[in-house]
């Protein structure tokens, strides 16, 4: 199984959090591919481009999937905004038989401090099997908030106790370390992918 991951709005594909999650998935035998949206790649050349609206990045995500043609079964997803963009194109690619599932790491259900501005409308009718790994105190969507959202039955949620938007807990509060949560995510994604594989054929 190959997992294609896009980065979040403010950190590159080789940020510490992206490196850590890629290692956790690779440790479970998954092949991980990462890519950068154009605005982030431009920053490496000194161009300080702000993140564009998520929907404008959909064509770039489609291109990244095409670059992996032949890598099947394929799961798409990403960290925060990267996972959101993947979720916007997932059903189209799933219906075409191009992907097997969607993996979101810290999904941005709403902007911080604006729980009324939900980004969930397309998730209610999602057909693609999806796994969302979310910290219980994520400022983009806590466990209490998400419990009230209308989400498709195709979406599974993995809650990480006391995790923030990077899935990191406070050990003194939760008893868990970031490494603990990364192992939990890696194992859960491996098991979830194994369940997707037969359906992917």
TrEMBL record:
Annotated Gene3D superfamilies: alpha/beta hydrolase
Record-linked InterPro entries: AB_hydrolase_fold, KANL3/Tex30_Abhydrolase, NSL3/Tex30
Pfam families to which the protein is assigned, alphabetical: Abhydrolase_11
Domain KANL3/Tex30 alpha/beta hydrolase-like, chain residue ranges per copy: 2-193
GO MF entry, a single one: hydrolase activity
Keyword vocabulary terms for this entry: Hydrolase
Tagged with keyword Hydrolase: yes
Protein name: Alpha/beta family hydrolase
Species of the source: Aquibium pacificus
Record lineage: Bacteria, Pseudomonadati, Pseudomonadota, Alphaproteobacteria, Hyphomicrobiales
